[in-house]
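seq:
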Amino acid sequence: MDRYVSEPMLLPPLADPDLPITRTDLVFYDVDPLGPSYVAHVYLDAPDANIDTPREASSGYAGSFTIFGHGGCFGDDERHCAHHGPADPFDLRAPRGVPRQVKTVTVTDALRALDGDTFRVTVVPVVPSPDGPAPTDTLDFGQLRLLSYGS
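struct:
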């Protein structure tokens, strides 16, 4: 996908003295690294964010994650790059293929700047090009989760 906008997510009680939250992360599960390398810029409460949106807190920018892309599959067939582990639990060989990844973006400060009870996450993937950063439709992940940690 060339841009992702989440459904509204509940804002955790960051100012509750009875439940002190010291860190909050957005975790992206099952991120596909088979395509090109890219940077995924993450914005909060900026559903219209795009490649031209400034990477500043005042624009909702919360951070980024980077994928060092595999550049596609160059094997003999589709199974070449498919990630699969050993069929036998006693098989000590390393899994084959290109595994999907988990990426974490710490968004504590960006969440503290928000008002209201909910927020949306917007992810804008960008690839390098000779003419500067360019949009890409390579973003592919399975699940997004908000994790909060207390002291």
